[in-house]
Amino acid sequence: MSYGRVTIPGEENYYNETMAVARRWKADAIRDCDGTKLDDELKQSELKIYNAYFPTRAQNQFIREHMEECPQIYLMSKRTLATRSKLTIAFMDEYYQKQLVPNYHDDPAKYWEVIDRTDGTVVPKENWSLDQEENCVTISDAALFHEYTVSFLAYIIWDPVEMYNHLTNDWGDKEHEIPFDALQPHSHEFILKTMKEWLQDNPEIDVVRFTTFFYQFTLVFNQYGKEKFVDWFGYGASVSPRMLKRFEKKYGYAMRAEDFVDEGYYNSAFRVPSASLKKYMDLVQDFVTGMVRELTDLVHESGKEAMMFLGDQWIGTEPYGKYAQRMNLDAVVGSVGDGTTLRMISDIPNVKYTEGRFLPYFFPDTFYEGNDPSIEARANWVQARRAILRSPIERMGYGGYLSLADKFPKFVDTVAEITEEFRGIHDNMQGTRAYCGLKVAILNHWGKLRTWQAFTVAHALYCKEAYSYYGILESLSGMNVEVEFISFDDVLENGIDESIDVIINAGAAGTAFSGGDIWSQTRLSEILTAWVMNGGGLIGVGEPSAVDFQGRFFQLASILGVDEERGFSLSTDKYFKTMSDRHFITDGIEYFDFGETVNSVYALDEATEILEYSNDEVHLAARAVGAGRTVYIAGLPFSFSNARLLMRSLYFAAHKEEEMLNGYSENINCEASLYPDVSKYCIVNNSDEQQETKVHFGGQVINLTLQPYESIWGDMNVGIN
């Protein structure tokens, strides 16, 4: 097998042991991590050297002289019920005061808002007063039994990621790292000056691993030091009066505190984005990518590579955004939680290479006596491997304290096997891409900007209300289909690209993923309906096209063949309940799991083929509409059975049932990938048990037995290597 493609973490006073692991894993690069440093001996090794670089933290001496330049965020106080006309709200009560302090430097009367949350009105500024010593706002004429909140600007005085690592690893008296805002004048100048000096002082560094740039995703802690609100896409920590003035100058109107607080939802990725939010995001992305380019130019002038970690302060650097190419990055590295997050990294355009940081992280919350971290490592690899076979990252690695992981020999051996298999994938693929039988588009409000990022709450994590949709992405990440992400605006402005075979609209009603009120724009329904009737395929999952409008809830009900009972038409009988005896979609599917299923979905008429009906409701259905086909699925959490269900649904909707058999394993625990340009195939066993399967490709059928987690490569013209 080949050598390299692997990055390991290093730390001080651990040279011999580090080099032993490097040889064991055939690593060719080494990196430091948050809380570790590479000593001179490691830096002089034959390994390529990555050095984490924090442009906006770990410089406390500077920022203590300019605390007014810390990043800021709009926060909302707890809702407080008025039982008297005079109401006092302690707005910091639910926040961690080692992380956050109110901004009294910029006029609160101008930038803050007090809102009657019962009727939604803004309390006039003359009717509330501020006590800065007690962090309280007092309302003088509150309406009895109304709830009130205070929306206020706060400085972030402890970097949220360093804070998390500090608390997780019990770093004790280690000084808290204070972040600063790149938009502010002193900070902007300091960032550029410090970058130049650091590059001169560190000639031995090969790769500057920016971790990350300027604005932290929204991560706010409560009074107990626990996470209160986390949104991996949140722009909340990019706000400042200076940025707000830029917005007003560019667009001709001012944003309010409420534009950021958003009734307490803080513009989470599940909310339908407002026009103002999209403009604000564009403004931040424009600034951030422009300043990133200043830093990457300096890095390149010094003869080094510029790598971005896709996490931490990544807001504004969206790698699928319209300004991304401007940054001129050499590489992007990100955390691999599953197949979806791997594709999020591996599909990034306009970089020389991508790298994945695999799990587990070498921290004591996993590496402790009695635990077997090799189990997580193997599970993480197997789930990511499906996606690597479709769209490979160029490199892989791990992070944390190597001295901690080195105490677990079984883990070290497991990673050695994983890294060897990873290199083997590249050796066999030889830079080619896997065969795709059709093209699928995911339709939501975010479109391309958040490619492979739909339904995500925090990076690689999801909630009960989201996992029934996230499973769509995880299934697609390892499937023999091409995937792209399109927005409702794309469809309304440009129509539907003729290369698309199937469109998926999925999500809970009212979310950015289902669509919300945009479906009351009849033009959207017209375009989708015409496209399906002319031969397109449509799959709706959960509550697709859902908004109460003109007697329908699913606005595409006429082509989906189903709608959801909302309690308004209970007096209207629903007669169509008979399931189809057999169908292409369900062939070989032994059980159904619709997750947090949608209740009370019913078939409109006999033209709807009901494929699963229980609890007096439809969970799976298909329908022919003109020259096209549609499929409805009540929910799709990830499992290999559900991945197979989705695959069969896609190929059915696209009228490409025969093409599905070109790279098809009959056993759902095994998957096949074809590489026509090098005449090779790869069959993987995704389970921890021996599996037997028949695999179809190119008109051939072969019988295989695979050991637990095994992958087998073969020549499409000859047989198994």
TrEMBL record:
Domain (Lacto-N-biose phosphorylase C-terminal): residue spans on this chain: 664-713
Domain of life: Bacteria
Ranges of residues in domain Lacto-N-biose phosphorylase central: 439-658
An MF annotation (GO) of this entry: 1,4-alpha-oligoglucan phosphorylase activity
Transmembrane portions of the chain: none
Domain Lacto-N-biose phosphorylase-like N-terminal TIM barrel: 4-436
Name of the protein: 1,3-beta-galactosyl-N-acetylhexosamine phosphorylase
Annotated source species: Muricomes intestini
Upper lineage: Bacteria, Bacillati, Bacillota, Clostridia, Lachnospirales
